[in-house]
From TrEMBL:
Name this polypeptide is given: Fructose-1,6-bisphosphate aldolase
Cofactor note: Binds 2 Zn(2+) ions per subunit. One is catalytic and the other provides a structural contribution.
Binding residue positions for Zn(2+) 2: 104, 141
Listed transmembrane segments: none
Native organism: Mesorhizobium alhagi CCNWXJ12-2
A Gene Ontology BP annotation from the UniProt entry: glycolytic process
Cofactor: Zn(2+)
Catalytic residues (positions): 82
EC number(s) from the headed UniProt entry: 4.1.2.13
């Protein structure tokens, strides 16, 4: 059954668990997520980025979500717009059956330039007002995602905000968070604590200097009733790097967010945990393995089935470790 982010995260808060939000671009990822949820009786958040929507087509995505909800009627599923950049993106998502949207006003509509605080408040408040009219939930973001390791991260790899970001912009200010939630009335708040999108988050095992989990505790102390969201939460497991590299990949050594740190976040108000990169790596490792071990293979299903199984196992592990299992 389809539910909103608000319904799902209220339940998660009441019972002290976190819900992974996995990104989807195609049928195989959708099936992997739902199989994992079914296997451990967990609710899930499926999210589509703007890139996913243009890759798969809105109508295809909408029908796919209908199909997944019909195939797995016992699983509560929230369909969420990841990183909406303006009102149009958020409203068209709702029109296509999404029950929740992220209005990421931490960046301007180009999704690159850090935005002013007043811009963020105004656009997020507008989207929240409109979404709430029609029963959809809204996630806002305060603080810009990016690595606290100097000379490393989003600004450099071009994935996120351009230019050098100050330490302050990279960490959400707890007092500003209180003002932001009050003025925008968001259902969930994404915060910045030193994580970044993609595989190259940290050049070493992160400690408190570069992964600022204490910021989450400070925000939670001031906003105990606000559902917090952690972006850039892939753990980039060594095993997945090893599979990719064993079968011809060339991923330089990198470090993600340890699952224990996410578990610590969940003890302090984190309810939604965004994971895309780990799923991509799980799938890509299997593509490489099949291509290497069976170079004569050309049936896409022979690549996609092991990839789906690997993603399913990854998703199930996170559903269990975040405590979502058993809560469907
Ligand atoms: O925001 C980052 C997510 O991993 C989605 O990535 O924009 O390449 O679909 P994407
Ligand atoms: P990862 O790149 O760490 O998987 O983060 C995904 C994300 O935050 C999507 O919004
Ligand atoms: Zn994100």
């Amino acid at each position: 059954a389809r539910i909103t982010l608000r319904q799902l995260l209220d339940h998660a808060a009441e019972h002290g668990y976190g819900v992974p939000a996995f990104n989807i671009n195609n049928m195989e990822q959708g099936l992997a997520i739902m199989e994992a949820a079914k296997a451990c009786d967990a609710p899930v958040i499926i999210q589509a980025s703007r890139g996913a929507r243009s890759y798969a087509n809105d109508i295809m995505l909408a029908r796919m979500i209908d199909a997944l909800a019909e195939i797995y009627p016992q699983i509560p599923v929230c369909m969420h717009q990841d990183h909406g950049n303006d009102e149009a993106t958020c409203l068209t998502a709702i029109r296509h059956g999404f029950t929740s949207v992220m209005m990421d006003g931490s960046l301007e509509a180009d999704a690159k330039t850090p935005a002013s605080y007043e811009y963020n408040v105004a656009i997020t408040e507008r989207v929240a007002r409109m979404a709430h009219w029609v029963g959809a939930s809204v996630e806002g973001e305060l603080g810009v995602l990016g690595s606290l390791e100097s000379g490393h991260g989003e600004a450099e790899d071009g994935h996120g905000a351009e230019g050098a970001l100050s330490h302050d912009q990279l960490l959400t200010d707890p007092d500003q968070a209180v003002d932001f939630v009050m003025r925008t009335k968001v259902d969930a708040l994404a915060i910045a604590c030193g994580t970044s999108h993609g595989a190259y988050k940290f050049t070493r095992q992160p400690d408190g200097d570069i992964l600022a989990m204490h910021v989450i505790e400070e925000i939670h102390n001031k906003l105990p009733n606000t559902h917090l969201v952690m972006h850039g939460s892939s753990s980039v497991p060594q095993e997945l790097q090893d599979v990719i590299n064993k079968f011809g990949g060339r991923m330089p050594q990198t470090y993600g967010v340890p699952v224990e740190e996410i578990e610590r976040g969940i003890r302090h108000g984190v309810r939604k945990v965004n994971i895309d990169t780990d799923c991509r790596m799980a799938m890509a490792g299997q593509f490489r393995r099949i291509a290497t071990e069976n170079p004569g293979e050309f049936d896409p299903r022979k690549f996609l089935k092991p990839a789906m199984d690997a993603m399913r196992d990854l998703c199930r592990d996170r559903l269990e470790r975040f405590g979502a299992a058993g809560n469907a």
